[in-house]
Write a structure and sequence with these properties.
Shape: globular
Keywords: Cell membrane, Lipid biosynthesis, Lipid metabolism, Membrane, Nucleotidyltransferase, Phospholipid biosynthesis, Phospholipid metabolism, Transferase, Transmembrane, Transmembrane helix
Helix content: over 70%
Pathway: Phospholipid metabolism; CDP-diacylglycerol biosynthesis; CDP-diacylglycerol from sn-glycerol 3-phosphate: step 3/3; Lipid metabolism
Radius of gyration: 19 Å
Number of domains: 1
Oligomer: single chain
Protein name: Phosphatidate cytidylyltransferase
EC number: 2.7.7.41
GO cellular component, one term: plasma membrane
Strand order of the largest sheet: 1-2
Length: 258
């Protein structure tokens, strides 16, 4: 437990320094997290490391960051996606061990991690340090509220086949906790346009974060994996720690907040 706490503090510091600096420093950090996440994802779905498909997938993740790193456009991102689709589908023709299902799974991983972490970096650039920090604290408060309230009052399973320990009471408690923290932070930091805006953003963040956690749990359960990686001693891998973040910032981009 002591090692876990110390590692958690160290990870927080290593993240918050680039986060405060912002700009390309934070963007490169998020890109590194995306690539580590894709490495873990590849391990989970059993794609050969440093093989052609792994390399192309990693390159795809990098190119999805092009608007932030190289001044690329959304049209360039669309071309990258089309190229990836063509490559992975074509690969199934010449490789009997690489099915359409596996090709689709790799593509999902590239999109999920590339756009997810790119959206986090975009939020820091477009919305600023306070707004993005409040969103991250809302995710944390959701996780904490869901854990403690679920542990105390949880009776009805939320998704028993995927994550047996999660309950409807815990999920509801996570949302309520997030709303309390979200309104408090808005009152102190004036993070949002209004309390109505704070309510809407907080609900999206809290719900999307919990869905993201369930999605990653479902992925690991499907492939019989306990942790996505061990890069963070006592905390697992990037996907274990940041699964909620990915879905949250994808969700915020989807509804046009980013």
């Amino acid at each position: 437990m002591k090692q876990r706490i110390l590692m958690g503090v160290l990870l927080a510091v290593l993240f918050l320094i680039p986060f405060k600096i912002g700009g390309h420093v934070f963007t490169y950090l998020t890109l590194a997290l995306a690539l580590i996440g894709f490495y873990e994802f590849s391990s989970i779905i059993k794609i050969r490391k440093f093989g052609t498909k792994w390399f192309v997938g990693s390159l795809g993740v990098i190119l999805l960051f092009s608007p932030l790193l190289f001044g690329g456009t959304s049209q360039f991102q669309i071309r990258v996606l089309l190229a990836l689709v063509i490559f992975f589908i074509t690969t199934t023709i010449f490789n009997k061990g690489f099915s359409i299902e596996k090709a689709g799974t790799v593509l999902i991983g590239v999109l999920y991690l590339g756009f997810g972490f790119e959206s986090l970096a975009e939020a820091r650039i477009e919305k600023g340090v306070i707004w993005t920090f409040v969103v991250l604290l809302t995710i944390w408060s959701t996780d904490s509220g869901a854990y403690f309230i679920g542990k105390k009052f949880g009776k009805h399973k939320l998704a028993a086949a995927i994550s047996p320990n999660k309950t409807i009471e815990g999920a509801t408690g996570g949302i309520i906790t997030a709303l309390v923290i979200g309104f408090a932070l808005h009152s102190i930091l004036d993070a949002y346009q209004s309390y109505v805006h704070a309510l809407a953003i907080t609900l999206v963040v809290s719900i999307a974060g919990q869905v993201g956690d369930l999605v990653e749990s479902g992925l690991k359960r499907h492939y019989g994996v306990k942790d996505s990686g061990n890069i963070f001693p006592g905390h697992g891998g990037v996907l274990d720690r940041l699964d909620s973040w990915i879905f949250v910032f994808l969700g915020l981009k989807l509804i046009g907040v980013l």
